[in-house]
Amino acid sequence: MEQFRWAVGKLTLPMNVALLLWAASSGWSALVFLMLPLTCLLPSTLMAMARFRRKGELATGMAWAQLATWLGLFVFGLFAAEGAGDGYWSYRAATRSRWTDLAGLGADGVEPSESVARLALAVALIAWLALFALLVLDLRRHLVTTRLPEERHVPSGPASRRRDLGDRGRASKRRGTSAPR
Fold first, then answer.
1. Per-residue pLDDT, 32
2. 48 and 66 in contact (C-beta within 8 Å)?
3. Given this model, what pLDDT does residue 131 score?
4. Quick check: is 47 in a domain?
5. Which residues of the chain have pLDDT under 70?
6. In terms of DSSP H, where are the helices of 28-177?
7. Which residues constitute the domain of residue 92?
8. Residues facing residue 81 across a β-bridge
9. How distant, in Å, are the alpha carbons of 29, 44, 127, 136, 181 from that of 38?
10. DSSP code of 108?
């Protein structure tokens, strides 16, 4: 399992780019694939890479969510009909998808193919949401539990300065030396 988490963390950037190009080349709406990398994949990829650099692997839930996102994008790119994402009923005008070409189906196979593509895109988005939530929670946990370097107390005003000098004076009298001025 440790090798799986390491491998998924190591492959995050190249697989996200490759599968995004695969899904975008399916002929679906370009607007979807202009917004998808900017709003979804870029932040989660950067956060996953930061987590990988910090820990050396992704957490188990993160790795499975990333794998489900990859699988959803791959299936979407395979089943999406060309031009079907432009409008709600435009899949009727679409005549082919990669799946219909591979399976030898005609225009009758486009509607079920597009249904599978939309389901796969929904699965990919839900898996991405889970991945993003896990990454944000991990980042929050890291920021909350990381110890900050101890800072020297610097008085902020005249009253606190006098109190600070008074505390030093009392401490030095106990030791038998005079307070620094």
1. 66
2. yes
3. 92
4. yes
5. 27-34, 36-38, 83-97, 101-102, 104, 106-108, 146-181
6. 30-36, 42-55, 60-79, 98-103, 110-145, 158-175
7. 2-145
8. 97
9. 15, 10, 17, 17, 58
10. G
Q: What's the confidence (pLDDT) of residue 110? A: 73
For tokens 């780019």, the residue is 17
Residue tagged 């189906």 (tokens): 105
Task: Decide if 166 is inside a domain.
Answer: no
Q: Position 34: which residue type?
A: L
CA 79 to chain centre: 25
The answer to whether residue 109 is domain-embedded is yes
- Tokens at 11, concatenated: 């492959």
- Number of domains composing the chain: 1
* Residue 21: partners with Cβ closer than 8 Å, 6 or more residues away: none
Helix axis angle, 60-79 to 2-10, nearest 10°: 50
Distance between CA atoms of residues 1 and 6, nearest Å: 9
Residue 95 identity: T
The pLDDT score that the predictor gives to residue 96 is 66
Whether the CB-CB separation of 98 and 42 falls below 8 Å is answered with no
